[in-house]
Amino acid sequence: LASHEREKAIAHAMEAYKAELQKPEKERKPLKTICCEAAEEWREKGISVTVSADTVRRRLTGGRSHTEFNAEKNAWLAPEEETKVVEYCLALAKRGFPLNHKQLKFHVDSLLQARLGDKFLEGGVGKNWSTRFIQRHSADL
User: Fold this and answer.
1) Which DSSP symbol is given to 63?
2) Angle between helix 2-21 and helix 31-44 axes, rounded to 10 deg
3) Whole-number pLDDT of residue 20
4) Residues 26-36: pLDDT tens digits?
5) Looking at the whole model, is its pTM more than 0.90?
6) Gap between the Cα atoms of 141 and 126, Å rounded
7) How far is residue 94's CA from residue 73's CA, in Å, rounded to a whole number?
C-alpha cells in the first residue's frame, strides 16, 4: 500500500511539473519544490511518502519504477494473464467461492504448466507468490 501511495504522489508531482513547464520560465517553480509540495500534500492526508526530484526527472524521460521493471523481467504471468486471474478471482468470489492462497497458487500453477510445459518449475510458483499477487492487486481484490 505504501508503494502504491508513493507512486500516486510521484505521478502527481510529474503532472504538476508538466503544468509548471507551460508557464513562462521566470514564473516556474523548481522541480525539487514541486516534489516537496507533493510529499506535503500526502502528509496532510496522513500518508508519509518521499518524492525524489531525481525519480520524477527520470520518470519524465521514460524511466520505469522498480515495480514496473520487475513485473516485466521477473513475472511468471504476462500483464494480460494477471488481469484474467484477477477477473477469475472476482467472478468466483461473486458466486460465493472466494479463492484462498492455496487455491490461487494451484490455479496459477495449472495455467503456467499448460503454457510452459516442462520449462515450468516442478513446485510451481513460490510459496509467497499468492501473497505478493494479492498485494499487487489489492485495489481490485
Assistant:
1) -
2) 140
3) 95
4) 999 999 999 99
5) no
6) 20
7) 32
Q: 86: buried, middle or exposed (CB in 10 Å: 19+, 13-18, 0-12)? A: middle
| pLDDT tens digits for range 58-91 | 999 999 988 788 777 778 998 889 999 999 999 9
Nearest to 124 by CA among 67, 72, 76: 76
Cell of 23: 508557464
Report CA-CA distances (Å) from 8 to 13, 14, 24, 29, 106: 9, 10, 27, 20, 33
- The closest of 42, 43, 56, 54 to 10, measured between CA atoms, is 56
Average the pLDDT over 18-33 and give the result: 96
Could you give the CA distance from residue 51 to residue 47 in angstroms, rounded to a whole number?
Answer: 12
Phi, psi of 98 (to 5 degrees): -65, 145
The pLDDT score that the predictor gives to residue 3 is: 80
Angstrom CA distances, 25 to 29, 31, 49, stand at: 9, 13, 28
Contact at 8 Å (CB) between 23 and 52?
no
Among all chains, which residue has been given the C-alpha cell 500518508?
47
